[in-house]
Amino acid sequence: MSDGAFSSRAARRLAAVAGVSLAASGLLAVFGDAFDDLPSFGADSYSRSAIGHHAFVRLLRDLGFPVIASRHRTASKASEGTVLVLAEPQIGALEGRAEAVEEMWDQASRMLVVLPKRFGAPRKDRPRWLGAAELLPVAEAERVLEALSVEAEVVRPERSVADWKGAPAPTLERPQLLVSEELEPLVSTAEGMLAGEIVGDGWHLVVLADPDVIATHGLGKGANAELAVRLVERLAGEGATILVDETQHGWESSPSLVRELLRWPLVLATLQAALALGLLAWAALVRFGRARRPRPELAPGKGFLVDNTAALLRHGGHLAPAVSAYWRAAKEQVASALRAPGERSEAREAWLARVAEARGRGDRLAALERRVAALAERPRAHEEAVRIALEVHRFREEMIDGSGGHS
User: Which string of b and e fits 27-46 if b means at least 16 CB within 10 Å?
Assistant: First the structure.
């Protein structure tokens, strides 16, 4: 009877499963952020495509900025210690998008707005890759400015610009610029400003006209990355959190505990918990009912004593003396049953030899004498000792039964 709910083999397998589960939990705790990715090709922080912002967000995180991607009720999260980044919001003709931007601006105290410029289409064979991109009408960028109540005009010069004012100077081909008297230029040229700001009582707005500065294809050119980081630093104080809105890119999702638990990679933790509960239920079912009585330390009956005595003799190497004693007892029993004359052992031995010879068992008697004597030199010959004991038993039975006596 097993004392546990599972066999040793099942316990080893369960221990192996638990070890793998524990290792998976540790890896998820360390590398969980690597799985927090959505299949995007567009201009958002999940996209690694040419027009995506994933590299820019990764750069901010590597520099020590705490960055959070918001997919639900961004306006309510824009607190005093937060810099809201609204990168290329896709207002278009979608209902409620402009109102959502207005609400964000009402709630946010510090905000970086990157105007939209391009629209992309995915590759058919690789949906995460950008297949084609084209310029959006300037009206799309101006809709964002209208939602922010900023009076400005979006322009796109037909030539490359080199006479930048403000540092660091960007590297852009045919940049998208702003012409505005309301914005204070931070980086500008004769045709317009690339970045401008408005500072009010308790609020600060920075507008970046061309998203190529932070997009994957342009972030590594020239001093574009330095410029993007400086714009963020201009808004962010010490310890400020960067809140990147993704609701304007179509990634809005209401929080759901069940959905999150069933989403990769948290589904692994869910399966782990379900497995643990299943094993707990299994163990409880095995132990259901009244507890079984423990085994008695000493089992009843003679069999237990015989087995233990045999084990002790075998372990101590005393089989040869035991067999020799058994052989002497057997000869005494035969002599007693056949009513041997005299009491001296030498006379009885000689008498037993004559009787065995008369009954045709003289050779067996002599052979048993030799085997019992030889066994004394082989104390560990267990099998031979058992065979000799069986032969002694047969010899005794044959001698006694042949006389009509009883053992």
Answer: ebeeeeeeeeeeebbbbbbb
